[in-house]
Amino acid sequence: QPKICTRSGQIVGAEVLLRWQRPGIGMVSPGEFIPLAEESGLIHPISEWLISHVFDLIAYWVASGNPPCPISINLSAESFFRHSLVPFIDRQLERTGIPASILIVELTETVLMQNADTAQQVIGALRNRGVRISLDDFGTGFSSLGYLNRFSIDEIKIDQSFITNLE
Question: Is residue 87 within 8 Å of residue 81, measured between CB atoms?
Fold first, then answer.
């Protein structure tokens, strides 16, 4: 899904959206299959496949003469807190030669609040490599800007429900 600058109309990035087209059933909502993948432990190989595939796509895009385009990937709590996440991203960066600043890891408030100290460590490790961090769906949970001060977040995506009744 492209991210478009409202002033210029230019594509300034993209967000990876994982979908499942199940034969005989049709499109299965991420709200249905992601929790099942988390419960079964399949979320880890799915996340690794997705990250690897995104790096391959970025490398292909750049090799085709296009400028690098920042890509956001949403990670579940299970994938984010897995001890192998940062080394896996390191291997993908090395394998493809893609600059770390192209990757944006998106997390929800729930992930951050689930284990704030560990979240802060993982965010720090990713940011030390140049990976950017985005907070997705801000406004659906705790929503404390003061509490978020302790995290190094590059961007905050405010949930529509948080601003629906604002003039």
Answer: no
